[in-house]
Design goal:
YbaP-like, 11 helices, globular, alpha/beta, six-stranded mixed sheet, signal, TraB/PrgY/GumN_fam, TraB/GumN family protein, 6 strands
Length: about 300
């Protein structure tokens, strides 16, 4: 179940995916000392910046350190995974609802679930205070995302690194670029969470207490600089396939774009999920293997 949480959090880039953007207005807390996974990538006179992110966070992580702010000011473009905020806007949202979120041809979620899995989902729905019947029309990926509610762990997408770095880029008048369109992003999620695997994946939804512990552990690991890679945790064949879709294949596509950015003459600041950085198929390895100098900016 831990792997389930890690992989799903790695895909959350928009508040539209989970209802967890509310903010705790409690009294001010001491600032956290975050060991930021922040790198300068260079070859000759060409360079870019790479920041590993977590899509959920806390207010006390900020402000960003001076090195990150100065690097962003030095950049012409901020590159993020997808236009997460754009997903929620106007005509685009209307155009994707039926095709992306809802099951087709009159299908219901229970059509893909055994009686045992239906009972498990009903139990989790009651525990999470989610309307069980309201889930029936939705695709599997959207259903499971409803249970990964960061608010249960006092975390927020508003204070996720992606959202905060995008806000700072707006303040600095840095232009946006995206590695994936919202359509491409949703297609990746659908591939990773197909309905044919629903009977198995529904049972991966953890009890709410366990989910809270896992989310907090994931957050604490990020703060402490413990960045997971695909090799860290033994996983099943199905989870390996998910990891291939969510991490490995995307890294290979992104790497081609990063090399194009580096050759452009402009300075790019890329901010992607920290889980994409480490390991044999991580971006840092790919940069090293292709002759780039990888320098950690904040030691």
């Amino acid at each position: 179940m831990k792997r389930f949480v890690i992989l799903l959090v790695s895909l959350i880039t928009s508040a539209s995916l989970v209802g967890c953007s509310s903010v705790n207005q409690a009294k001010e807390k001491p600032q956290l000392h975050v060991k930021w996974p922040f790198y300068k990538i260079s070859k000759g006179n060409q360079y870019m910046y790479l920041l590993g992110t977590i899509h959920i966070g806390k207010e006390e992580m900020y402000p960003f350190p001076k090195q990150i702010k100065e690097a962003l000011k030095d950049s012409q473009y901020l590159v993020t995974e997808t236009d997460g905020e754009g997903i929620d806007r106007g005509d685009y949202q209307k155009s994707i609802d039926d095709k992306v979120f809802l099951l087709e041809n009159g299908k219901k979620l229970n059509d893909y679930l055994s009686k045992d899995s239906q009972a498990y989902l009903m139990e989790r729905a009651k525990e999470y205070d989610v309307d069980y019947q309201s889930l029936q029309d939705y695709k599997l990926w959207y259903v499971v995302s409803q249970f990964l509610n960061a608010e249960t762990a006092d975390l927020s997408i508003e204070y996720g690194v992606d959202h905060q770095i995008s806000q700072l880029a707006n303040n600095y008048y840095v232009n946006d670029k995206f590695l994936e369109t919202p359509k491409e992003h949703f297609e990746i999620i659908q591939q990773a969470y197909p309905e044919k695997e629903a009977d198995q994946l529904i049972k991966e939804i953890p009890p709410i207490k366990e989910a809270k512990q896992q989310l907090l552990q994931l957050f604490d690991d990020f703060v402490q600089g413990k960045i997971p890679s695909a090799e860290d945790t033994p996983i099943t064949d199905f989870e390996k396939r998910q990891n291939q879709i969510i991490v490995v294949d995307r890294n290979k596509r992104w790497m081609k774009k990063f090399e194009t950015y580096l050759k452009s003459g402009d300075v790019y600041f890329a901010a992607v999920g920290a889980g994409h950085l480490e390991g044999k198929d991580g971006l840092l390895t790919y940069f090293n293997e292709n002759g780039y100098v990888v320098e950690k900016v904040i030691k």
